[in-house]
Amino acid sequence: MLAAIKNWKIHFLALILVIIAEWIGAFSFAIGPGKIVLLPMLYALIMGIFLGPKFLKLASHKDMVDAGSLVGVTLMLLMAKYGTTVGPNIPMILRTSPALILQELGNLGTLFVGVPIAVYLGLRRETIGAAHSIAREPNVALIGDVYGLDTPEGRGVMGVYICGTVFGTIFFGLMATFTAAIGIFHPLALAMASGIGSASMMTASVGALSAMFPEIADKIQALGAASNMLSGLDGVYMSLWLALPMTEWMYQKFYKIKYGTYPSTSAVKEG
C-alpha cells in the first residue's frame, strides 16, 4: 500500500496509457492470406517511450527505475491468469511435451546469427554475453556468475537485456502477426515458439495470435504459458552447457577470420 502511494505518478500515468490504448482498440489489416493485428499493448509501449526524460519528461529516470521494479509483480498476476488456461488443456500439452522441450534448442539460433554479426561490428568479448542467448534475467544472472557483470561479457549481456526490455515486446508482437499472416506455421506452433523465457514478450506474441485466431485462443495461451515456463526452467542449463561453450568457440573462429589472429585469452586485456 505504501509503495503504491509512493509511486502514485507511475500508476496514474499507466492508467492514462491503458485508457488511451484501450480506447484506440485493436487494429487489423489484411496482408496476403492473413492479417496483421496491432494490440493496445503496442500502443501503450510506444506512448510510454515518449513519456521519458528524453522526450516529454513526464517521467523521470527514477520513475522509470521504479516502474521497472513493478513489472515482475504485474507479470505474476498475468501468468496466474494464463495458468487458468493450462489446466483444461493438460491433455494437449502432454501430447506436445516433446516439442515443448525440444523447442528450447531453437534458442541456440541466437548465437549462430549474433556471433558473426557482433564480431563484424567490432565487438570483442562483449560478443560472448550479447550473443549466447536472448539475454533475459536468468541469462544475466548466469553471465554475472561466470564472468561478472563488470566485464566485457557483462556489458554485452546487459546491452542486449536493455534492448530487449525496450524493443522486445514490440518486436515479438509484430513478428507473431507477420509470421502468422504468411501462413507457413500452424498457430499452435507459433504459440509454442512464443515461450522463450520472457513473460512480456510471450504475452505480446500470444495476445496477437489470440486476436488473429480467437477460436483457439485458449489453446494458444495454454501452450505459450507452458512453453515459457519450460524455457525458464531448462534455459539456464541449455545456456551453461551448450550455448556458452559454442559461443566461445564461434567467437574464436570468427575473430580469427576477421583479424587474422586468435583473440587474447584474457578478457581484461581485451576489455
TrEMBL record:
<feature type="transmembrane region" description="Helical">
    <location>
        <begin position="68"/>
        <end position="85"/>
    </location>
</feature>
<feature type="transmembrane region" description="Helical">
    <location>
        <begin position="12"/>
        <end position="31"/>
    </location>
</feature>
<keyword id="KW-0812">Transmembrane</keyword>
<dbReference type="InterPro" id="IPR021450">
    <property type="entry name" value="DUF3100"/>
</dbReference>
<feature type="transmembrane region" description="Helical">
    <location>
        <begin position="105"/>
        <end position="123"/>
    </location>
</feature>
<keyword id="KW-1133">Transmembrane helix</keyword>
<keyword id="KW-0472">Membrane</keyword>
<feature type="transmembrane region" description="Helical">
    <location>
        <begin position="225"/>
        <end position="244"/>
    </location>
</feature>
<feature type="transmembrane region" description="Helical">
    <location>
        <begin position="160"/>
        <end position="185"/>
    </location>
</feature>
<dbReference type="Pfam" id="PF11299">
    <property type="entry name" value="DUF3100"/>
</dbReference>
<protein>
    <recommendedName>
        <fullName>DUF3100 domain-containing protein</fullName>
    </recommendedName>
</protein>
<feature type="transmembrane region" description="Helical">
    <location>
        <begin position="37"/>
        <end position="56"/>
    </location>
</feature>
<feature type="transmembrane region" description="Helical">
    <location>
        <begin position="191"/>
        <end position="213"/>
    </location>
</feature>
